[in-house]
Amino acid sequence: MSGVWGKNIQYSIFGESHGKAIGINMSGLPSGIPLDLEFIKSEMARRAPGKDELSTPRAEKDEFEIISGYFNGYTTGTPLCALIWNSNKLSKDYDKLKTVMRPGHADYTGYLKYSGFNDYRGGGHFSGRLTAPLVFAGAIAKQFLNEKGIIIGSHICQIGTIKDTLFDAVNLCSEQLNELHKSNFPVIAAEKAAAMKELILNAKEDRDSIGGVVEAAIINLPPKLGSPFFDSIESQLAHLLFSIPGIKGVEFGAGFEISKMRGSEANDQLYIDKGIVKTYTNNSGGILGGITNGMPVIFRAAFKPTSSIGKPQNTVDIEANDNVEIQVTGRHDPCIVQRALPVVEAAAAMAIFDIMKGQIQ
Amino acid sequence: MSGVWGKNIQYSIFGESHGKAIGINMSGLPSGIPLDLEFIKSEMARRAPGKDELSTPRAEKDEFEIISGYFNGYTTGTPLCALIWNSNKLSKDYDKLKTVMRPGHADYTGYLKYSGFNDYRGGGHFSGRLTAPLVFAGAIAKQFLNEKGIIIGSHICQIGTIKDTLFDAVNLCSEQLNELHKSNFPVIAAEKAAAMKELILNAKEDRDSIGGVVEAAIINLPPKLGSPFFDSIESQLAHLLFSIPGIKGVEFGAGFEISKMRGSEANDQLYIDKGIVKTYTNNSGGILGGITNGMPVIFRAAFKPTSSIGKPQNTVDIEANDNVEIQVTGRHDPCIVQRALPVVEAAAAMAIFDIMKGQIQ
Amino acid sequence: MSGVWGKNIQYSIFGESHGKAIGINMSGLPSGIPLDLEFIKSEMARRAPGKDELSTPRAEKDEFEIISGYFNGYTTGTPLCALIWNSNKLSKDYDKLKTVMRPGHADYTGYLKYSGFNDYRGGGHFSGRLTAPLVFAGAIAKQFLNEKGIIIGSHICQIGTIKDTLFDAVNLCSEQLNELHKSNFPVIAAEKAAAMKELILNAKEDRDSIGGVVEAAIINLPPKLGSPFFDSIESQLAHLLFSIPGIKGVEFGAGFEISKMRGSEANDQLYIDKGIVKTYTNNSGGILGGITNGMPVIFRAAFKPTSSIGKPQNTVDIEANDNVEIQVTGRHDPCIVQRALPVVEAAAAMAIFDIMKGQIQ
Amino acid sequence: MSGVWGKNIQYSIFGESHGKAIGINMSGLPSGIPLDLEFIKSEMARRAPGKDELSTPRAEKDEFEIISGYFNGYTTGTPLCALIWNSNKLSKDYDKLKTVMRPGHADYTGYLKYSGFNDYRGGGHFSGRLTAPLVFAGAIAKQFLNEKGIIIGSHICQIGTIKDTLFDAVNLCSEQLNELHKSNFPVIAAEKAAAMKELILNAKEDRDSIGGVVEAAIINLPPKLGSPFFDSIESQLAHLLFSIPGIKGVEFGAGFEISKMRGSEANDQLYIDKGIVKTYTNNSGGILGGITNGMPVIFRAAFKPTSSIGKPQNTVDIEANDNVEIQVTGRHDPCIVQRALPVVEAAAAMAIFDIMKGQIQ
């Protein structure tokens, strides 16, 4: 029942796609952080729609307004609340959808849970637009982590069946992550980008959509973060990641592939390199017993294809209590994966920020 | 930092593999549940070691002793604490491992996090043995859910590269789940069992181990459970699942496969069947917007191969600050997947029990 | 570290006295509550400053703007965030106080905790102005409770040494509470009001302030609310009450007086009246073992005199690291007790709303 | 619904007065604390019954058994669970009370809340005996705090109407607290002890009981602990204190007396003494804006007289649904205040331990 997450930094999300504004309140921030507003804007721009033919033409600038907790250029340490006003609302588009449940969306479950009182316009609180406040919070978290040398990065590791090269989980360096960060369509194997884009545009032409996978990494994390059992690093990262609309799978290190291995292959053998304990491989994704070991934390998140598609689909009219056909018009992304990268990174940054605030001060 | 999980039922786990006892305290249980002690015992027997040649010869009966919260055959509603005494302890086996970090285990991260004060014998608090209290709590949760008609079941869906048939996510019935529950080595495609067992025994012969995947299902769940964002059903199930030692991946519904689909294939189209809204397919795994839709909830968890193997491995002696070779002797499971089924089911039961206690009373 | 409270309804407060706005985000609200905006306004008007000579001349209308979670006149069930814009800000008044710590205020502790980065203007986040969002949230909670017949009321039970008659804890009725609710200066013994007001005005004339006590009651509460130990009704009410700036004592039922009694006097003896179990007396304040028994819940909260006074006081200049004299100018309340009644009621309503949402649905 | 408290150290309490054992699980303890078992025993002995004619003759040694989280003399950092076995149980005493609700006890509210399934023997989970695990946890917390120079002490500041001298809130020193700690009946004004004891023995002779007040202090606390609003030091201390059976009032600093003061008297004026900011008075009890200021934290808790008295009282038989008379036989304390001192100190230590673990590491 909760729109609040975090033990040490408490993130409270609110808002609906076509309401006045969406936003987030962050309680527990350290004081004295000189916010880099330009960095926050650039992170939000990475997620913002309407940039190119690969994404929805809904053009939202996603400008944020900090309401509290920020004074003379620094965080005060008291709750920081930020709003993102909804400017480009075309609510009429959605009026006819009030009782017709879009397949793949939360229309039906939202209708049930809230007894029909939920704001159905554009998915309301379930909208992917609610990831904008996550990116805002994540940008602040990233700034905190960056100052400690911790870098979070990601790439499109799969669109449909086309796969990018995976991260080198042992030798991953900040240069590569920074390079990927600059790209609008970040892939490791540059030659894969064109085929991936073609797949997206093909789907678009067909009034359809396509899914994909994001691979992310956190490097330079101190060891000792996390706990056995209920607050394992995997538990906390997965908790936040599965809050992001559209994610249906999360795996760490070798992930599902590790299930095919023998122990002698899967175990990351250790050695000492100039006084630092390292592992030859990194199948564990930098986490053992729920705790970081100092190697890169690597994970992947599987995104389903955008639920809004122009093709006719079977569904129900919940008030008429009857089967109907639906064709979702309006402005949609043929693929959300490339826009989801900053969201995945933000969720990871939010989680690590919370954990570090509790463990290392 | 937390050994406590749950909002409405609070599970507090404690204990070390070779300490006096392991156990769990459950706060927030409903009063008046007539505990089915035989059922709890049978669930714990499913997980218990030493049953056959596929698992470790450490023979623990895993008998539990309820300390509180249980009176005249019923739960009192006040905290129920149960202990499982450690009877078959061979601590000497582990003395030499005090400073030599076993690859794949949490020895190194535990050493760091607890500054060397952790109980290193048999992995201490990180031991897979700590899943016994989870199965205890899960059995109570299951009893509660069963009374509402909700059934949780699972099968071995993969050992190494050998894959079982997946659940029919649309037409899954209690008969199938009950049938699987009776088996020591539950698979859907019976002919796969022999090959899987062979793979395990081969690994055993080679003093090695092998990983696998568990697929689980929850049927007859009421719709409306869960929330958008931070308390999505996926978030809460994944949080608990990733607390189980050895799990490196979790996926719901079509999971990672959904990322290869187009929206027109991935979207579960809806229809009304005798007044009930259903979907033709169930790629979403019964969850949309973080909320159950009444269809079966399906998920898979990837287990890494057992970390303890008899083969020589490279590692470090943390006190000698040097590279060493290790050969882990003692009693190990060549594969934990078949023993993990009740643990995965227990985690799911614990999570759903907590969620239902908060939403439906 | 937390600006968030509540298990079932999560209240997240934010804002500073002289920032852009103050506000609150409420997560976990039931859907379908037709908000009575006029009632919310009237509750906020009870707290609002500038009404008469007994309170500060800072005239804030305390108009709220609902940002989310409210659609077509009903709560949606998704987080409801409301802002109260700060309109009447005279920040210059406070510039000279930046480093001079006002006695009785949180200036010094805030400076330390936030390393000088806190918004010092008007007390910033520590300001009594932050009680406005509490009254907003409390009004929604009250509406929910009122629909179940539960009424929360209060009176000024003490100003300085002048004491009002206490509630009749056994026979307290809604008529009396409703009558008190209408008054700007609610007392039970009407004749005490004049003397109390005189005390306040005398303090004002002397550029001083005066303290007092609020007595509050919650009637028609169902029995069974609350828990033994950590979630006792007293624990939860006191937790929220002690969040209100200026409260230094909280007592339930006979409170500190019960410590002077013998058991034979203090014990509330029971009897059955038309099938309902009642008590002859109500020294326990309607709570036994942390759980409501169906009798009125009665409590009192002691407020210190307003910290801002015009008289010269000794203090320190934290940057000059020296002793200085201060005379707090600006707009102050000579007494906050009469304005605190709706805040105390709001805190009680917020707590009971949270508890009931968890227990009774 | 919660038997768990704490954000950074999570305390999970369990057990019933006449069940197998009572206990507590502590999650989040630092590793490497060499537990002073003798100190824990001595703290538990302070609370233990049966020591003299002032308390109940139920002789329980309150010996604890640590089950987990303790290895080779040090805390491991993983959950520490301790049991206190119930040895001296006379359950038959209580059988006749199964349906007759003892006035002043939680019999009726417990019966309602748990639908009659609660363990009614000796109050079950509501028993004052459950404060033994609190003292155990408090002793560990105290050891942690003592190492940082922080000392918690208390005295009987009132029995019935006889009042002890209050602490000097400004000049309170460790010598005085240590002196009080040694006494079985700690008062500041030694001459008051005899009259207080006489009052208790008089009540005992009359088969009655008497209430009282405990005053406690925490000295050498670092400033900056706590937060504005929902995690104020007062909120957190009061939350735990009101969990202790029998407490009906809690006040900080001047407490209810501050409500009679003018601001010019109540405000604690500041000055710099050798570079340290101090206050001339300490009416705030060392807490401003919910945050410690470095002065002693002072608070008082009002205890009701023991509910169990031998005098005849009116009550109800809940199953017979009729009015009856009850005379509570068995072993009772005529006054619990002198045994409550270590419990009050333990609650304070537990709360401060939790807060410091989160803020200072």
How is the secondary structure organized here?
The structure is a homotetramer of 361-residue chains.
Chain A (H helix, E strand, L loop, with lengths): L3 E2 L4 E6 L5 E7 L9 H11 L16 E3 L3 E2 L2 E2 L4 E6 L6 H4 L11 H7 L17 H17 L3 E9 L2 E2 L10 H9 L9 H14 L6 E8 L13 H9 L5 E6 L10 H4 L3 E4 L2 E4 L7 E2 L2 E2 L4 E7 L8 E6 L4 E6 L9 H23 L2
Pathway (chains A, B, C, D): Metabolic intermediate biosynthesis; chorismate biosynthesis; chorismate from D-erythrose 4-phosphate and phosphoenolpyruvate: step 7/7
Protein name (chains A, B, C, D): Chorismate synthase
Keywords (chains A, B, C, D): Amino-acid biosynthesis, Aromatic amino acid biosynthesis, FAD, Flavoprotein, FMN, Lyase, NADP
